[in-house]
């Protein structure tokens, strides 16, 4: 009997040892006020949580002794030791820090906990668990109303993100409050800063117009990135990933911790390679991030230097509809150096100054240098396209030649950003901020090789355009707390001057300029039901200038107007120890939205045209419930309608090069799915372990604004009617699931050992996330020349991380 008892006890011992107990408590300041949003971490158990609206937290721990660490901006880090033998309470009282923090830099352009706007905050831990080497948009895939895509199909290289159907050029991106969007195209190219996620401390994603920020106006949303901040202890981290398509990521991060109570230095070196899912669509990416900071009693100074280099084989055009059924990985480019080469260097000097207990200042000087080219092979190209005259050899005239060309971008972006934060009372929070930035972009092209002797010297420059853009803005924002009410007001003035090479009235290329002035007011109100929940409503105005192509490919007579957006938002939020979530309704009313219609302008170029009336309206839900201490479920859902009123689409008739117009009273905006949903179910069966199922559903999207309607008298041609990719101008809906496994543990020599596995598209779904269409007419037929950005079937990435 004794032996039987011993055997049973031995079998049950692992389960007893791993029994989970709750440790809960409250985090307050010295005045007893709750500190919502404080971070509670247990490093040895690889757990962290954030206090709710009343400062409460709760974690689950197995039997053992732990160090519990609490951090909150503006307060000293506090650590307590606890021996867990059952359910326990552990409270913390934080003391104000003797040193300044980077709080003003963080909050100057962000929404606060009770701001009447829709936003999602992502911590460093949130990003780390999905960071296997894919670009930043893929790490934001589980946030509400987001659709991501990859040109190469595997999430490495050129990637894109849409928020509420708005493309990247309409999403404002800042890094430490400094604009990242390209000043001319207005897009954000995360391929130019590979592995930036490994140097990010937190991100706020806002939807809609949001709060005033620096750079181009947010017409779909904004992504506010804060890079590395102070870490008080020294560290060395090695993070490596490898997987399908020869994808490899190597990252080394080091930091000194706080030296002499005043200084810290951190650095990261990364390289990422992937062959891509699409044929030949490789990516070779390299980057580094260096930062040093001084922390004084009233002053924080931080210098950031980070660089990204990318060499990617082009997969920009997607897979044509006539190839996709036979070869989903088809790439029409075969020239060995059909590549994009670009290097981008960033320099930032950030200053936070506490002027008094009520007044603080943040400012930044910044400079970004970018230079690179994309190389192309053009078969039998007309020499006249390069400003050359045909060459005559006896009786032969060479009008064409196989040409290898490089198109260069050599740009400089520099300026200053600033914010003054004033807290006259506990009830009033005021911010005055803004920026002045200048951009200089050199656009030029070279011929580096040709198959025939066309009298061209090596590196012959066949075009050049030196553009300049000045961008100034100033904004004032205030939040006034009146018991349970919060009143919000935000006003921004923005001035833009742009000088560029465009067409004059006689269709000659001449230097031109454009000047715009915008006023963007915002107002809202929040009612705090209790410490855990609130309701809010807001109204915001955004204005946005046309992009480079809108200006350069037009004359003053055909130049489009700027866009205007009036954004109405209302919602409900709740945050408890078990459930966090909210529901948000939006109505985004556009005036003069710019869209591609198929029409040509007076210089013969395809243009974006202003449509007078269009709108996006919908409801967003996001929530996360802690079902048990081991099981949690997070989900998002967006239902929307996205319409243009009185729309005219133009189709080219290839028989006579005329334009045929299709008029629609109301139509759906392209690339605007009516439903976007995501789900993340995570289960922690053992200490430090997690299994998660991540799912995403995107309903069908149209490739243009016609909803597949054809002009009267034209039908789809018989050759393509049997091909679903050619018969319709749309992307089919798709449901994709990923599985993520992580296990973290420690030894005496290693603070943390992390093992991870990410299986993307675990059910091997064949789908496309993006595309383009170029329909044309001939005879009585319509031909849909569709291109699709095919995403990878089942693939995996495995990771190993070591922290010392």
UniProtKB/TrEMBL annotation:
Pfam families per record: CarbopepD_reg_2 (PF13715), Plug (PF07715), TonB_dep_Rec_b-barrel (PF00593)
Main location per the UniProt record: membrane
Subcellular location: Cell outer membrane
Mitochondrion recorded as keyword: no
GTP-binding listed as a keyword: no
Source organism superkingdom: Bacteria
UniProt domain TonB-dependent receptor plug: residue ranges: 113-221
Signal peptide: 1-19
Topology term for the membrane: Multi-pass membrane protein
Residues covered by the TonB-dependent receptor-like beta-barrel domain: 297-762
Keywords: Cell outer membrane, Ion transport, Iron, Iron transport, Membrane, Receptor, Signal, TonB box, Transmembrane, Transmembrane beta strand, Transport
InterPro entries hit by this protein: Beta-barrel_TonB (IPR000531), Beta-barrel_TonB_sf (IPR036942), CarboxyPept-like_regulatory (IPR008969), Plug_dom (IPR012910), Plug_dom_sf (IPR037066), TonB-dep_rcpt-like (IPR039426)
UniProt record similarity statement: Belongs to the TonB-dependent receptor family.
Name of the protein in its database record: TonB-dependent receptor
